[in-house]
Design a protein that fits this description.
Blueprint: H1 5-15, H2 20-56, H3 68-84, H4 86-90, H5 94-119, H6 121-152, H7 165-177
Helix pairs in contact: 1-2, 2-3, 2-6, 3-6, 5-6
Length: about 180
C-alpha cells in the first residue's frame, strides 16, 4: 500500500492544492470502500477457510486460530489509519503525527498490563485491537479537522514544503552570494 498508493495521493494533494478538500474527500471515500472490502475478505476468507486450516495445520496451531480474527481486524484499523493520516503527512504535521501515535501506544501498554495477567494472549490481542481502533479514530478526526481548516483557508500557491525549480534556484543563488 505505502509503496503504490501513498506517492499517488501525495502527488494528488500537491497537484490539486486549490481543491485539496475535494481530493481528500475522494481519498477518504477510497479508504472506507477499501476497509469494507478488506473486512468482508477477512470474514469470508477466515471463516470460510477455518475448516480447511484446521485440517492443514498441526494441532498445536489450532488454538492460535481463535486469535487470528482479532489480529486481522486490528490490522484493518491500522490500514485505515494509513489512509487517514496522509493529509497530516502532506502538511508535515510531525508533532501531531507523533501525538496521534503515542496516545494509542500508551493505551496499549496500559491495556496489556491490565488484560494480559487476567486473559493471557486474548488480553494481548484485544489490547492491540483496541489500540489500533483508537489510532484509527484519532487519525480520522484529525483528518476531518485538517479538511475543515483547508476548506476555509484556500491556497493560492502550493504549500511551502513543495519546492519548485524557482525556489531551489533562488536558494542556490542566495547561498552563492552569502546572503
Amino acid at each position: 500500500w505505502n509503496g503504490a498508493y501513498y506517492p499517488y495521493i501525495m502527488q494528488q494533494y500537491k497537484n490539486n492544492h486549490d481543491s485539496i478538500t475535494h481530493v481528500n474527500a475522494t481519498h477518504i471515500r477510497t479508504m472506507w470502500i477499501s476497509m469494507i472490502i478488506v473486512a468482508l475478505g477477512i470474514i469470508i476468507t477466515f471463516y470460510g477457510m477455518q475448516p480447511i486450516l484446521i485440517l492443514l495445520l498441526p494441532t498445536h496451531y489450532h488454538k492460535a486460530l481463535t486469535y487470528a480474527p482479532t489480529l486481522l481486524f486490528g490490522q484493518l484499523f491500522l490500514f485505515g489509519s494509513y489512509f487517514a493520516n496522509c493529509l497530516a503527512q502532506f502538511h508535515r504535521h510531525r508533532y501531531a503525527l507523533l501525538i496521534m501515535l503515542s496516545i494509542p501506544a500508551s493505551i496499549n501498554l496500559v491495556l496489556n498490563y491490565i488484560l494480559i495477567p487476567r486473559y493471557g494472549l486474548a488480553g494481548c490481542t484485544n489490547a492491540t485491537l483496541i489500540s489500533y481502533m483508537i489510532y484509527f479514530i484519532i487519525t480520522v478526526l484529525y483528518n476531518r479537522f485538517l479538511q475543515k481548516k483547508d476548506a476555509w483557508m484556500p491556497r493560492s500557491s502550493p504549500p511551502s514544503h513543495t519546492a519548485t525549480a524557482d525556489t531551489v534556484e533562488a536558494r542556490r543563488s542566495r547561498r552563492c552570494r552569502g546572503a
